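ok so i was messing around last nite and threw this chain in just to see what happens. nothing serious, just curious
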Amino acid sequence: MLSSKSDQEISWMLDDYGIKHGPVVGSTRSLYEKKLRDVMAKERKVRGASERAVYREQQNVYMYQRRPVSL
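result:
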């Protein structure tokens, strides 16, 4: 699932889960994918299957909010 996401999508997911991160590039991507898998698994254990997690898993889709750009 995560391997099919773009670097930008991985970055947005890290932000959504509150994971501090640097740039998502080839050399850092596997580390960030592991962090996301760990936090997503922990979320499922703690909350059961939350509505958000179930939607992501069933549809294999992640909904992103556009962040405002500050100038």
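not much to say yet. The chain has one domain: 2-59.
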